[in-house]
Design brief:
homotetramer; Adenylosuccinate lyase (chains A, B, C, D); 20 helices; mainly alpha; Ribonucleotide Reductase Protein R1, domain 1; 67% helix; two-stranded antiparallel sheet
């Protein structure tokens, strides 16, 4: 029998994320959940022998996926197969009391989601710490900002990085909010009325409530749904994937921009340690990793589309029409964002900027970018506004046309302006204005300093997260 | 020239929402924004004559869309066209100082989004108030809960409504969070560095900051971006549409379930006042409005798909590749959710349940739902567990088969069980058990009471919202 | 190291589909492709020793995925790793001449897609053959057609099935068209200009063309692209997934309708051989498989969303931003449609209808559905049209209201009409009209006969496909 | 009352497309449809007075949208409102005989779709004719092809255009196929059984068939569905939007590439006649229109997402849950593709390439691209392969590094190689090799010639389409 691995997990995701979503990992989570419920039930008065609990605990890590699958092929019921397996291993029948399948699966799947959110949180902080570092490093690196992909006004490379960083920061707030408010379904029974737990506890609602609280403590989730059916509303899953997509936005825009910069050789995602370009094409530093980040973003769009189709589609108290979708969408969306962040952090660790090339680009465009200032100076010198405007326009258009048709190969606008009596500006004056262009970055540095301060606080609050080191990527 | 109206706006959305997004409404918002900036600049020291401000204010409501469009067809620049129009009307040239087009459009569009969120908030509260009312009304209406669309366990109709209500409540929290944390772009200039405002104020960063704070006060938005480019990150738009979709989830699931119930005639969306079914088909209460709610949900999926494609696609400091998408997606998503909520509230105002039909359904299924209890009673009476199980299974399967092949037309399981000596249960005992089935709704009522209490608090905090009355729907 | 399987492949897809997409299967396809190119190059004049070809052929099935992955982790280049592995195994370096990575991967991936389309074709025919069979079996089974989920007019169950079948038939035409016109990229080189093959063959364009034709013969694909870059346009992938979604439409609508019918117990997806309902709930035939079909449809929407985002996003001659997306989307979309069709065929093999329950439903609604005819008969008898209309409306509304409030439990409209002198129709006359209702199915049978004839021809053309038997599903 | 226009229609779509989808246009289409059915019924034997037909025909163009909307607000039934309006105008009640609402609306909407497909077909041919022209013009313009956005191998600009053109050509085949095979629903009645038409014609199936054929002739659509319910399968709508998206792919990739080229100033979308860059920034030719094309592509993704959610969601014989979605999706998808093609054709009419800049780029990269050839020449000269490789790598890496750190500003690799005795190649030899680089475009020209020939044939078959001139865009 052929075995097809999950390509997102196997090529891109990391061990901790895979551990959460592995068949074996999930089975252990389920068994721990059953044991937690069982202990809670015992503490609240049900007659469950201590030895049974001990027996279950002693075998909880003995996971034989094949045996379980064999059972499922007979029963055509996945949870029943896993109950039988666990009970046979333990030699007792004390788990799953008053529980329906969804009392197990919904809670355990939510735990998987919740823990995955934590893993992602760490990596987002790690990415932001690196973005901050670069923002500081290139705080003063004067670059030509582009709008419509065309030179517009100056900024600094540090500010550009902070810009994408702030996108990610705002998405991180969404992640924080989701983690803080994430509600778990709890033990609600077949149609959500808690009938079976209430029956177990002779309709003692207080005890059932306490049992559910224990479950929440076990899961580490602080909030729960009250009114649900067989399932919790799938809008929660949509929101989850939506937050993952928001987290992908900043890195994806950053990656697109780095791909563009690589095209101009002003920056690149760099090489892995020891890697070199081919001898034939040493200039060819392919933005493979950046392209991959963009690919992950596209993948997340697809999973969000699945999630959006699940929400708002509950029939009565629910069914399993969402089951196969969630089996795919939830782990795969987390594998994708995990892979995206690993790739993104690696890019941040290896990327480089090429100040000399950047400077050439600046030199090419700066005279154009300074024409407004030049005109103001000419006017200050007593030249008529209309005259100045006319002269400058004439030379600017001439320069750009000559550059495009190949008459000239570098921007000689200042020469032309210096040679035009109408403006009355000397070459020295014009050079001074051009030199002053370096100051035309407005509040860029102050802005990025704000980003830096915010991330510094975040890093101080999450020191381990910030120190996270990614694995080697393919 | 043919004029195509926006079908979502014209057929489904309400006047307040349309006013926010109308061309005229937007132009007034823009002019008010320009005036606010102009006043701020004057207060902070720029030389702007009082009479100019007065002139702009006096003409700000004179909107001639055709004249503006004519200008745009010449300039091929929409903002320039609107500047010229406003200045010509006022007879001054004092607006838009140090501003780039995006300093106007981004902020005004965000204001449109922000106000629309407020409109939607009101309607969500109004819907929840009605769901609460129904939940109370039908608190004790015993119904057969369904999983996989098949009878499962008892619940109450009030609980079922509370279930969809809680989905909406959790989505409302997301809306609240978005409104509270929504950041506006502010006056950041062509590439985000605030260069031009800083130039205007001789690099006095403090003054530029104060100007931006004034802008925020004018908009009524408490938070702003710091590091942006020409545009704010489009992930914010994605998040906005994502929240709208989350708000649609509860109503959409409710609508699907009501469509299902209408198929069984246990409930229906009812008729408008004075409307009656056709004489030929008086039973045919088509769930047109519920179907429409589901249609709106699908539409929102499409807009979310557009939004998801915009995020993570920023090239350098930005461009207008998102422009046409946002012109469509933002208003249309709000028109869709507005129409959805209007329709949903109307459904809530007109819907009805049919207890007699519900009771027939209960009677049909209840004996099956009570077999576990019957077995337990037989065992209490001294019958062997295996014997009881065998007898009950025999009769249950027999009954269902006879119902399906038409041998019988109503559920006679109790007769069969009463007539079987193996169980030793009298007809009276069995009837008593069946009657007890009415108590098998677990915590349904307590759960819905929690929903009711939560909504009561919400309504107390938003009395006007709760009292909102929808317009007539098509 | 945890190993995460592809859940779509492992739980739902079949061995032949998995074989096409397995890592091992793909490596063999690649090696066969290299060998085919190598043989073509030799035949066209390149100096490639026969023993090298023999050596490659002798080791082509020796696939060691781990060894290849180890190589990739060093080279960070997947194709290079696979070249080295194959060459080391063969002890020669004769493959991949004049080829760039994409000359290998694009063609092999297209082959995977193309073969998968063939697998799917077979199953669609198999599904249609079964739909036809049911359409014939239930050709005359009179049912109450529903619009808006409410009883509308009569039809037959066979016609209902043919309706969903015709949806699938039209989608099958799309599949046929795609298979017939599917163009392969061929050996186009690094930027699509065939530079390297032309260099190999001293710019002999004729030979390069012949080599490409050989490649097409090897692949079994009749058409090729001429003008491409590094990659073929991704719109072809979008179209492919779009066709898969179209194929899912008929089955998905069928599955939804069967879920609805199960709620009314008029039909069900049935049980697997030997399976029975639980004793407690023998009525509970959960539509798990139908729900799963709907789930697969949702999944395909997500993959189509990914595909739609890839099209129209080619930068220059291409890059790998689509790579990770296609690694996920292409196999997973095929696994999903494969699983959908397996599940659908299984449903068709196990489903059942319950004529007695259907008849009860008909009896409940038929009097309402016949009121137009009754009025016409009354008018024929000389009663005034207005009078007749008034009387009938009165009784119809009365009946439906009494049913809803529980005054009556079966439809007694005919009794009421018979007892009303205004209409002048005897009970016998009314019974005759009602009996005539059985003929009010219009062209239902003739329509389904057309479907049957079309499928018969299809089956005759594809006898093996029609005879396809699905594997056991979970 | 505020009136919100459809932004896609009003800003971007053309009059012919708007006419098809306008409220007024649709009402006329409906009235023509009713008249066609009425005439058919009369010819087939129904008693319909000639004067009634004449009366309807005489008023069919008197469209009063407000009056109809007023009626709809009373009846809450759009079709009924339009029947009443038309009958009141004509003074007869002869239309809509034996028809249900969907017999009108489905067919008329399909006619709108079908005619829209024709409009789009024209524009696709027009776009291809222009792409062909450019491909010829720039057939020999040697450019540096880029993969991963980085210089890779030579090609020609004509070939690059043909590459995106072939994407569009293949999509055009899909459009052709859709137009040829597009099936109309016909007169199938309330649940698809044609009951009411059969009743009208005393169960004469032959006459009903003839009537439907007349309807098809009237519509100009050659194919029809046989087995449908109240509605035709919505998968047909999904396929329609999917084809529109495929058509958008080539233009969208072309637009992205032109945006990239504009960033390098190797090409631009140009200016409208008379338009000039601003004086301050004459270099700033913003790719606004290209960005818009990409925006339209994103919009179409959203509508495809809506369409994908409609397919496979039919409950029984159908309902109106798709209604609001189709009201939005169908016209808006056509407005979007119409706007996209208008914009794209305008770009093609105004775009320009800058050979001098292209040449500078080539000069910068060509030495790197020729290193393989240089090594081969050195080896021919008797230099050891290893020696040559080592020397070339040394200089290539040195050159690229010096360029990046700013030591040099133009590529001096050839100087370095000429100065290295190890290679034994004179400056003249190296220059000759470099000059030969101009021939390294492989089959680029032959490939584009194939594209040209295909489009020539297409243009010959569609002369009017090719001559289509777009309107002025905003």
């Amino acid at each position: 029998m052929t075995m097809i691995p999950n390509v997102l997990a196997e090529r891109y995701a990391t061990e901790p994320m895979k551990a959460i979503w592995s068949a074996e990992g999930r089975i252990v989570l389920e068994r721990e959940f059953w044991i937690a419920v069982m202990k809670g039930q015992r503490d609240l008065g049900l007659d469950i022998p201590e030895e049974a609990i001990a027996a279950y605990e002693s075998v909880k890590d003995q996971v034989d996926a094949q045996s379980i699958m064999d059972r499922e092929r007979i029963t055509r019921h996945d949870v029943k197969a896993r109950i039988e397996e666990f009970c046979d291993l333990a030699g007792h029948e004390q788990i799953h009391k008053g529980m329906t399948s969804r009392d197990l699966t919904e809670n355990v799947e939510q735990l998987q989601v919740f823990r995955s959110l934590g893993v992602i949180h760490t990596k987002v902080v790690a990415a932001l710490a690196r973005m901050k570092k670069h923002s500081v490093t290139w705080r003063d690196l004067f670059i030509t900002a582009r709008t419509h992909n065309v030179a517009a006004q100056p900024t600094t490379f540090g500010k550009r990085i902070a810009m994408f960083g702030e996108d990610l920061l705002v998405a991180l707030e969404q992640l924080d909010h989701l983690i803080e408010t994430y509600p778990v379904r709890g033990l609600k029974g077949a149609v959500g009325t808690q009938l079976d737990q209430l029956s177990l506890f002779d309709n003692d609602a207080e005890k059932v409530d306490q049992l559910e609280q224990r479950v929440m403590e076990h899961l580490g989730i602080k909030r729960r749904w009250t009114n649900v059916g067989q399932v919790y509303p799938r809008s929660l899953d949509t929101t989850t994937v939506s937050v993952l997509l928001a987290l992908a936005s900043g890195p994806s825009s950053f990656a697109k921009t780095l791909r563009l910069m690589a095209g101009h050789e002003t920056a690149s995602e760099g090489f892995a340690k020891g890697q070199t370009g081919s001898s034939a094409m040493p200039h060819k530093m392919n933005s493979r990793s950046c392209e991959r980040v963009n690919g992950f973003h596209t993948i997340l769009q697809g999973y969000l589309s699945m999630g959006a189709a699940l929400a708002g589609d509950q029939w009565n108290e629910g069914d399993v029409s969402c089951s196969v979708v969630r089996r795919v969408m939830l782990p795969d969306a987390f594998f994708a964002i995990d892979g995206l962040l690993e790739t993104f952090i690696t890019i941040l660790d290896q990327m480089d900027a090429y100040p000399a090339v950047i400077e050439r680009e600046n030199a090419y465009y700066l005279p154009f970018l300074m024409t407004t200032t030049i005109m103001m100076e000419a006017v200050k010198n007593g030249v008529g506004r209309e005259t100045a405007h006319k002269a400058i326009k004439e030379h600017a258009v001439g320069t750009v046309n000559d550059l495009r048709v190949g008459k000239i190969t570098s921007n000689d606008l200042l020469d032309r302006l210096a040679g035009d009596d109408r403006l009355g500006l000397s070459r020295e004056q014009l050079d001074a204005i051009l030199a002053g262009g370096q100051d035309k970055i407005g509040a860029a540095k102050a802005q990025l300093d704000t980003f830096v301060a915010t991330v510094d606080k975040l890093v101080a609050d999450n020191p381990n997260a910030a120190a996270y080191e990614p694995g080697a990527i393919l």
